[in-house]
Amino acid sequence: MIRANELTKKFRLKGEIDIVALNSVSIQVRDGEVFGLLGPNGAGKTTFMRLISCLLSPTSGTLEVAGFDCTRNPVEIRNKIGLLCEEPGLYERQTVFNNLSLYGELYGMERDEIEDRIDELSALLDFKNLLEMKSGRLSKGQRQRVSLARALLHEPEILLLDEPTANLDPVSANAVREAIRQIQRQSDNNRIVIVCSHNLDEVEKLCKRVAIIDNGHIVETGSIDNLEHELWKSESFEIVLKGGTPSSDFLEYLAKLDVVGDVQIIHNAREEPIGSTDSHLVLKIGLRSSPRSIDRNSEDIIADVVKLVAAQSNLKIVSVSSEKHSLEDVYLKLMRDKMDDVKEFQEMSAPGQD
Description:
CATH superfamily of the largest domain: P-loop containing nucleotide triphosphate hydrolases
Largest sheet: 6 strands, mixed
Radius of gyration: 26 Å
Number of domains: 2
CATH class of the largest domain: Alpha Beta
Order of helices and strands: EEEHEEHEHHHEHEHEEHEHEEHEH
Number of strands: 14
Helix content: 25-40%
Number of helices: 11
Strand content: 25-35%
Structural class: alpha/beta
CATH topology of the largest domain: Rossmann fold
């Protein structure tokens, strides 16, 4: 478990000006969780990672990592952490095997234990053929996989990944992401993985929960699905029909259901193949939360509505698709809403004009 409570970090610059990198941040990361840390440059993400790693000390507040306090037990915490940075930092004149052996010794591991662990990780991350190659000759993707093995060598309870696929080509980036998934699947499910990245698609593929940081403050924390639901409470889905048009009585009946927010018919929503005599239309249905539907899964509600449409003899369903928002959609909306709130506050606080 990682638990931050009112965590604040300030940096003193020349002229005794305090720069607040983190401002009263409270957050929890649970055991076994792959957690995403998002935010623009200068938001405080790296500062938070350095505090977890005990490379920095907090100005105020508390930070507990794996049961230890970061100010009182930094050595114990560092022994439980593996760190993968954007820049691998391998000794280029040394072989891959020697690089990993050196770090194993620094972690206090026995020689036999180091060799067994290198053998295991090189097989898992697919670089057994590179063990005798000098690190300076590795490609960026190979270097990143070796660096990931180095971070995992001592079987840490917490794995910190700072831009793990930055500057990698798509194939290498995918290989690193798959390695992270595989490692987490083979762990005892108690390891915490924190992914700090600007690649929202990558975070969405790896993480279940995220925290969005801006100007040292937590904007929002939660699972991607829950954040999406909170931002777009009225989910919608589309039913593509052919062979007929829903009657006005049936559309009125649908619109009166307590789970339905609105109903629209979109004509000519699909391009038909040349020579086709079929015509399609789209029935777009918006859902809303109601006292009777609050405990029901949206997929169940959609299925019930689809059954009602399918029961109409003059309508033939071609396809059903529900609207889905990506993590990028969630992130951009939250940041736009925050900027709008700041702008509104500034306008309200501005002195009146004569």
